[in-house]
Amino acid sequence: MKKNWAIFMILLLFVAIPNVSTAFGNFFNKSLCDFPFGQDGTFSAYYDQRNFDPNYYTGSYPNGGIKLELFLGRFGTVKERDRIIKKIYWVRYTNKSVGTTYLVTTPYKFKYLDWPTAEYDVSLGVKAMAIGDWVISVCTRTGTYTGTFKITEDMIDFQSPAEAVDPIVSEDTSTGAIIVEAFPTNGILYRARIFDDEENIVSQQDWLPTWCGSSNSQCTMTFEYQDARGETLCIETRIYNQEWPIMVPNESCKAYDMNPGGMSRSRIYLKLESLKQ
């Protein structure tokens, strides 16, 4: 009798396990679409190159490659942003095809034009380590949010990467303003950003090739800065709507096997300082 009762309890346990799994499934494995992003928060994988103007930077610097970026979005206050960060234990990127895992436990925190924000990112400089089927897992106090995406050899070899501009810096002798000019390359949009000493974005200007009209080939973009004191300026070349995977948390969000539409970006850094020095 006891033996029959034990068998009954084992069978009952096997019946109960799927129900327990179902009951906790939403807690332990949620869609990344349901993650509590701030305004404009998103996940994307994209080409991201960094260049440093040799007139202002010497030596060798990492130039990036493929960037995996969980951008938390913009928040009204630092407290609101940090409230989200405190709930995140880690962000894990796993390339199932290669068998590599990248665990990010500390976010890159900064302000984007006075909006506190943060991102959990990884830069992959080797093509062989980037290609494959990827899983992103965001482990938080309220469960793990997951998504999947693919990086293919075609994305890397057959898409046109953004090309950085070659800036020309001059100074207005009458006003002391620093003037930065450049010819457009292959970008859809060019973005000039100023960073402070804590890597916050404090100023931003966009420039579009369409502003040139029919004389596009002879057009020159111009950015002018008064009272420059050695701040870091970065000019980005951007190409949107490429095959790179992206996930935007909206009504058509797709966390698993993400849609294409990510960007390609190339940046060049220089210093805003008087040429009279």
Features:
ten-stranded mixed sheet, alpha+beta, 2 domains
Total domain units: 2
Shape: globular
Distance between the termini: 96 Å
Q: Say how many strands there are.
A: 18
Question: Strand content of the residues, in percent?
Answer: 35-45%
Distinct helical segment count = 4
Largest sheet: 10 strands, mixed
Share of helix among residues? 10-25%
Category from helices, strands and their pairing: alpha+beta
Pick out the low-confidence regions: 1-27
User: Secondary-structure element sequence?
Assistant: HEEEHEEEEHEEHEEEEEEEEE
Radius of gyration, CA atoms, in whole angstroms: 24 Å
The whole-number mean of residue pLDDT values reads 89
How would you describe this structure to a colleague?
The chain is of the alpha+beta class and 277 residues long. The protein has 2 domains: 154 residues, no CATH class; 65 residues, no CATH class. It contains 4 helices and 18 strands. The termini are far apart. The N terminus is likely disordered.
Give the topology.
Layout: H1 2-28, E1 30-31, E2 42-52, E3 64-71, H2 78-85, E4 88-95, E5 100-104, E6 108-112, E7 115-124, H3 127-130, E8 132-140, E9 143-151, H4 153-157, E10 168-171, E11 178-182, E12 189-195, E13 201-207, E14 221-225, E15 231-239, E16 245-247, E17 259-260, E18 264-272
